[in-house]
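Collaborator request, handled under Task 6.
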Amino acid sequence: MPHVQILQGLLKVNEDGVTVLASHFNGSQIRFADEVIAASDGSLYFSVASTKFGLHDWHLDVLEAKPHGQLLKYDPVLNKTSMLLDGLGFTNGVALSKDEDYLVFCETWKFRCCKYWLKGETKGETETFIENLPGGPDNINLAPDGSFWIALLQLRSEKLEFVHTSKACKHFLAAFPKLFRLINPIYKKASVVNVATDGKIIRKLDDPNGKVMNFVTNALEFEDHLYLGSLNSNFIGKLPLKTV
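Structure tokens returned to the collaborator:
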């Protein structure tokens, strides 16, 4: 049975139910809203991983390897969505700095995170925060000390490198997505990094063989523990940071 995709966009969820805040942008439906962060003034910054492919077709985005991602802003006062950046490489996690003077957003297929300045002389400008990460950055969360936790997807492998050298292989895997899952290392290990405000890695935590968790997409620090979310597990991981 084929997947049924319900394209909603940016949602507000509370005790009264679900409200759609933004389902379209510039006349086009928001196909793949990914991550959102709220600023203290009520503004919502959110990523669109791909304007071409939806959630269940994410593998087609990586096979095509073209920048279809966006970074958008929703103004709740004006009920208006505006574009901050376009042409991004699978825009994923979004986090605000401690002083809310810049955003950090993840480009999964480019193995990097970038800063988008919200205040000061550099307002509206973009710069690289960290690049050449040892995995594709998924979600990013602000830590209590002002650093950032980034969950990494294991996308690099010799098998995948070969795929990107052959259009025939790409078309074949696009037609048979189960094969893409079999050769993809994303399901075999877990990795997260803690990155300082200067873009340097403070520490890296791994489950290299996926014995406890794999396909970890989120890491959130709370009261000296790191909480881990995975798309391949039916539980939330909890790791005491004082012991690592």
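The cover message to the collaborator said: "The longest helix spans residues 167-175. Helices lie at 58-64, 158-163, 167-175, 177-183. Please let us know whether this matches your experimental observations."
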